[in-house]
Amino acid sequence: MLIHPQFDPVALQLGPVAIHWYGLMYLLAFGLFILLGRWQIRRRPDLAWSAKDLDDLLFYGILGVVVGGRLGEVLFYQPGYYLEHPGEIIAVWRGGMSFHGGFLGVLVALAWFGRKTGRGFWNVADFVAPLVPLGLAAGRIGNFINGELWGRPADPELPWAMVFPHVDDIARHPSQLYQAMGEGLLLFVILWLYAAKPSAAGATSAVFLIGYGVLRFAAEFFRTPDPGIFGVLSLGLSTAQWLCVPMVAAGIGLLAWSRRR
């Protein structure tokens, strides 16, 4: 059984300026997006993307991730808390970003970018999908460093079961690391290999929707459910799991549509 290291959430203090690990993980995610995007441009010249296109897209994507992710956390998971503490809504450096909210924010950003550049939504979405998972992994590592989003109780005999002392003395699943490996590394490998060759418009995006939805749904069985607006819902599933259901359904429908084309 392991003990969470209780990391200091502040990675570096420069006078009055505190640089948080969570913020550094977001910078790492954006850096990986650029590196992988340039690699994708080189290996798939048929996509007709340039480095400038990638840089512009990142700007739109950052807006979508930050605004959508924070609003999703506020509206989907902790509306009561933020209603009582409205000043903390902008404190993104403390953690608290909803994937599903960020996902909706990114969809708006991609549509905006696609319309502005005349590329079309699916052209942009299919290009972006393989670049996202490693950034998600970085975010989950940030959650682990912060000691947040801890797992459900686990068998103390499990070699990697972990006690989070700031929570209690119960051995728990390090679910943040499960998600980093599943929705991060595994999903990246699947999408990177799938996107290596041309496919129908929307197909790569569909694989992302299905892959993330299934892997997140599974990971929630090991993670303490977020309180959500309604807490744990019917069938004993968490708010996040129910949000994954339409995501997977949309992915299956999109994949069928793209293959018919």
TrEMBL record:
<dbReference type="GO" id="GO:0008961">
    <property type="term" value="F:phosphatidylglycerol-prolipoprotein diacylglyceryl transferase activity"/>
</dbReference>
<comment type="similarity">
    <text>Belongs to the Lgt family.</text>
</comment>
<comment type="function">
    <text>Catalyzes the transfer of the diacylglyceryl group from phosphatidylglycerol to the sulfhydryl group of the N-terminal cysteine of a prolipoprotein, the first step in the formation of mature lipoproteins.</text>
</comment>
<feature type="transmembrane region" description="Helical">
    <location>
        <begin position="177"/>
        <end position="194"/>
    </location>
</feature>
<feature type="transmembrane region" description="Helical">
    <location>
        <begin position="239"/>
        <end position="257"/>
    </location>
</feature>
<dbReference type="Pfam" id="PF01790">
    <property type="entry name" value="LGT"/>
</dbReference>
<keyword id="KW-0812">Transmembrane</keyword>
<feature type="binding site">
    <location>
        <position position="140"/>
    </location>
    <ligand>
        <name>a 1,2-diacyl-sn-glycero-3-phospho-(1'-sn-glycerol)</name>
    </ligand>
</feature>
<keyword id="KW-0449">Lipoprotein</keyword>
<dbReference type="GO" id="GO:0042158">
    <property type="term" value="P:lipoprotein biosynthetic process"/>
</dbReference>
<feature type="transmembrane region" description="Helical">
    <location>
        <begin position="57"/>
        <end position="77"/>
    </location>
</feature>
<protein>
    <recommendedName>
        <fullName>Phosphatidylglycerol--prolipoprotein diacylglyceryl transferase</fullName>
        <ecNumber>2.5.1.145</ecNumber>
    </recommendedName>
</protein>
<keyword id="KW-0808">Transferase</keyword>
<dbReference type="GO" id="GO:0005886">
    <property type="term" value="C:plasma membrane"/>
</dbReference>
<feature type="transmembrane region" description="Helical">
    <location>
        <begin position="97"/>
        <end position="114"/>
    </location>
</feature>
<keyword id="KW-0472">Membrane</keyword>
<comment type="pathway">
    <text>Protein modification; lipoprotein biosynthesis (diacylglyceryl transfer).</text>
</comment>
<feature type="transmembrane region" description="Helical">
    <location>
        <begin position="121"/>
        <end position="141"/>
    </location>
</feature>
<feature type="transmembrane region" description="Helical">
    <location>
        <begin position="201"/>
        <end position="219"/>
    </location>
</feature>
<dbReference type="InterPro" id="IPR001640">
    <property type="entry name" value="Lgt"/>
</dbReference>
<feature type="transmembrane region" description="Helical">
    <location>
        <begin position="19"/>
        <end position="36"/>
    </location>
</feature>
<keyword id="KW-1003">Cell membrane</keyword>
<keyword id="KW-1133">Transmembrane helix</keyword>
